[in-house]
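Sequence, please.
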C-alpha cells in the first residue's frame, strides 16, 4: 500500500483590513471590496485578530511595499507570491504569521517529481486575480 499527501493546488490568499481586501499578484499590490475578485468568496477565512495600525499608516506601509519588495515584476509563483505578501502584511498588522500549511505548500509541490518536471512552465506563470484595482496610496481619496 502506497499513500501520499494529495496536493490540491497552491492557495491564493489576501488580507482584509480596514474594510478592503488586499492581495499581491503579477500586477503588483491590488485592492477590492472583500470577495470582490472574480475568484469570488473565499473557501476559508482565518481570523488573525485585530490591529492597532491605523488605516493611514497601513496605506503608507503598503505604498512602500509596492515600490520595493512587492512590485509586479518581483512576483514568482513559488518563491514570492500572494502568500508571501499576506504573511508579511499579517505580521505587520498583528504580529502573527499566516498558517504554515499555506506557506509550506509551494515547496511541497516542488519536492515532488511532478512539481520538478513542471517547474519551468510554472515559473513562467503570472497570476493576477481579475477584479481588483491596482493599489495606489490615493485610491478613493480626493
Amino acid at each position: 500500500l502506497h499513500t501520499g499527501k494529495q496536493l490540491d493546488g497552491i492557495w491564493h490568499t489576501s488580507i482584509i483590513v480596514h474594510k478592503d481586501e488586499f492581495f499581491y499578484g503579477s500586477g503588483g499590490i491590488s485592492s477590492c471590496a472583500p470577495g470582490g475578485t472574480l475568484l469570488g468568496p473565499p473557501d476559508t477565512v482565518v481570523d488573525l485578530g485585530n490591529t492597532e495600525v491605523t488605516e493611514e499608516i497601513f496605506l503608507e506601509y503598503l505604498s512602500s511595499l509596492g515600490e520595493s519588495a512587492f512590485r509586479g515584476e518581483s512576483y514568482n509563483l513559488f518563491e514570492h507570491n500572494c502568500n508571501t505578501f499576506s504573511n508579511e502584511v499579517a505580521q505587520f498588522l498583528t504580529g502573527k504569521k499566516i498558517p504554515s500549511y499555506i506557506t509550506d505548500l509551494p515547496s511541497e509541490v516542488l519536492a515532488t517529481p511532478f512539481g520538478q518536471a513542471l517547474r519551468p512552465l510554472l515559473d513562467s506563470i503570472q497570476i493576477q486575480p481579475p477584479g481588483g484595482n491596482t493599489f495606489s496610496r490615493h485610491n478613493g481619496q480626493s
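The longest helix spans residues 55-67.
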